[in-house]
Design brief:
mainly alpha; 3 helices
Length: about 70
């Protein structure tokens, strides 16, 4: 029983309880984030965001070179 009194366990239990009680709001929040057109980067650090931007720039350059030589 003492293991259930840890703050992490209490937080997890409360979060699961809240998700079960308000399942519709979670769907609504997800829909609103998807409609905004902005990527959800809240869980990403600056290195991950920079990597995504770098990947997009590399793909744009590769597509441009493909169009120049084979288009």
């Amino acid at each position: 029983m003492p293991d259930q009194n840890k703050p992490e366990d209490q937080r997890d239990r409360l979060q699961l309880k809240d998700q079960k009680e308000h399942a519709g709001s979670n769907v609504n929040d997800s829909t609103n984030r998807a409609q905004s057109g902005m990527p959800d980067t809240r869980g990403m650090g600056w290195k991950e965001i920079g990597g995504v931007i770098l990947l997009l720039v590399i793909l744009l350059i590769a597509y441009s070179l493909y169009q120049v030589f084979f288009g």
